[in-house]
Amino acid sequence: MSDVSTAEKPALKNDRFIRALLRQPVDTTPVWMMRQAGRYLPEYKATRSQAGDFLSLCKNTDLACEVTLQPLRRFALDAAILFSDILTVPDAMGLGLYFEEGEGPKFKKTVRTEADIVALPKINPNDSLQYVMDAVSTIRSALGGSVPLIGFSGSPWTLATYMVEGGSSREFRHTKEMLYRTPELLHALLEKLAVAVTDYLNAQILAGAQVVQIFDSWGGALAHREYVEFSLKYMTKIISGLIRVHEGRSVPVIVFTKGGGQWIPQMIDSGADALGLDWTTSLADARKIAASRVALQGNLDPNTLYGSPEQIRKSVAAMLADAYASNQERTGYVANLGHGITQWVDPNHAGVFVDAVHELSAIYFK
Ligand SMILES: Cc1c2[nH]c(c1CCC(=O)O)Cc1[nH]c(c(CCC(=O)O)c1C)Cc1[nH]c(c(CCC(=O)O)c1C)Cc1[nH]c(c(C)c1CCC(=O)O)C2
User: What's this chain's function (predicted)?
Assistant: First the structure.
């Protein structure tokens, strides 16, 4: 295990992100961006070509650490996120992940039959995914306590869609076929994934991740009953098995179901500390529903960053007004985009977004 004793780890200098997730008092609104390390940064593209390709970059400890830190050098972000991918887990299960230029992720093998599911090995994260743990501990040391490090995983449902389809999908034809024709098979797959994700996230926490986020990127593709049965249930199970205190500090858990804004009451029952929301949900309405039971994270449309700096600032001001409209406690909120930043965003506009959050939220912290 790559657990390093607390004594070797410097105290956190900026903990407002963790404090907001735990609904403790903060001095200003914390902010980070999903996919903050990525192709919109020229320095990312340079490091990726040095590594060869995206997967080699994920597997190269020093270069994965380098790209994690790149956005933090440019912007006043309140958190770092491990540079990796959600599909490392099915890759470790032997499905053979590869990326075809411009086509997104693909697997050499798909998982569609009972035999396919039975054949999936139980993973040991400190074996086949040790490169991720090495990245976590290296990044954690490199951060030197400047900001917290977020670890992450895909949700069982989201991972299952990639494994069953063999890559990205719009229709989820094969996964939904399995769901409606042979639900017991899909449950068997989700069950295996829930165990793998629990072990994977716990290994990241032991290696130094201070917050974890579960990306349920395709939860919103499910019908409302099926969302609870095939996605939320397994995330709830994972959360109940996570290490919640490490190095003497709470390790908050964020659940991000893209397209899940209508399920806030159900998501609260998952035991997550915070819910990530996409831009289709009003933060003001979400706060009324969530009251003070859970923190919220989000939710600017990432495409807002195509607008002018003035337009970005206006959108941030409106988002903050929504976030704090019925929130007199002035905590329990983390600013973010509603999904990952795209490769076509001008990096300066990402900077405008980050600065606008800190600057324009000042009126709420007088
Ligand atoms: C669905 C999903 C994946 N990966 C991820 C999700 C869930 C989040 C979401 O909903 O967007 C999660 C992810 N992927 C990546 C991160 C890094 C951390 C961060 O900065 O947020 C995180 C948190 C890096 C990446 N993951 C990927 C890239 C781009 C690859 C490159 O550099 O060419 C990055 C920076 C590749 C990837 N990996 C995946 C896709 C669909 C793609 C995109 C393919 C494309 O756009 O061409 C699977």
Answer: Catalyzes the decarboxylation of four acetate groups of uroporphyrinogen-III to yield coproporphyrinogen-III.
